[in-house]
Amino acid sequence: MNDFGQRPTEQASSSVSDEEEAEEQEAIGRIIHAVREYRGDAEWEVARWEHNFVRLPPRHRELVRTLPAKCARARQCIQANAAFLNEALCAFGDQPYNAGAGTRIMGGVRAADVRARARQPPAPADVEKVRYVLKNLTRDWGAEGAPERSQSYGRMTAEVAARLGAPPADGPPPRVLVPGAGLGRLCCDLAALGYEAQGNEFSYYMLLTAAFVLNESERVGQWVLHPWVHSSCNQLSDADQMRPVAIPDAVPTEMLPGPGLLSMTAGDFVEVYSTPAQAGAFDCVATCFFLDTAHNFIEYIEVIRHCLRVGGYWVNLGPLLYHWADAHTYLPDDELSIEVSLAEVERVAGELGFHSLRREMVPAAFNANLRSMLQSTYRCVFWTMQKQPAGAPARVTGGDQSRESKGA
Questions:
Q1: In this predicted structure, what is the pLDDT of residue 378?
Q2: Does residue 2 lie within any of the structural domains?
Q3: CA–CA dist 36, 203 (Å, integer)
Q4: Phi and psi for 257 in degrees, rounded to 5?
Q5: With CB atoms counted within 10 Å of each terminal CB, which end of the chain scores lower, N or C?
Q6: Where is this region: Disordered (predicted)?
């Protein structure tokens, strides 16, 4: 087992009130409950397929006579997924790299037990997030995800390397921060180049899975998942829907050229990295499909600038699918969401002290099913900006590259 430092930071946890602690334990309990209930919920969906099959007239059942065998195979796939998720859940609570969050996790377990005893079903959003984790594992840690990773992670690691250069033979390596690190693959790819990469993630769905994969992976193809089993639309064949995906395609510890190059922090990006201790702490911030997760993108830019050294680089790739734009349709609270055009985002970045070195529009998919009849690709902005000294004139336009890329 290898400790990749997957724990909430002291700065984030020390200021948490008892009420906030109880709310977080309840939130963790909701997540644990959703993971535990994955198999039952997924098999309910298979039961729905079977129910609709028996409603058909006999002559129609005969024409789709392979459906019962498909349902039986789907249950096997779901069982394999559930075994992985439960193993990850147990490891997240038991392993020493979570010692700092032990009380919080145990409180979450108790909250999950209460939900289970009350036979409370997981919320549909939580059900979908568990399935989303399976797809994300394919993107980050499956060989099948390599083409998609090359569109985003590959571009970003190449750009970071071009800006920071080779790590010095003597002395500390450049430090790169990856907010919204998800399952940690981009962090690993950057650490593999010899940089000190630190990921930050807020979602416990991602944190528990990342901790498991990063710390417990011992061999390529150690686990076999079936991430597309729940997707019954736009499938070319049953085999495509049930196909296995082996993870990881690379062992994290074997990717790293030395110790101490990879760490993860849990918590809200703004809370963790706006502290005085983080001022100028990083040579580069790499954001991938992250900026539009903000309630207030301006706050994100301010924190990115805060934790970069003067002359440090901000490498960004992603669309502007503002995640909170429609929160009013499914959440009771009035969630803040600031949605502006790309031109406005770039103008704000300039006024906050960034100068554009590179800007390109590139195609990039996210959690795409390569064998689906439905394919979607984002037209992402890919930029590199540099932090200017305080008082420098605002400027964002221009740079050494500003163009449209039509290739992958």
A1: 98
A2: no
A3: 17
A4: -75, -10
A5: N
A6: 1-25
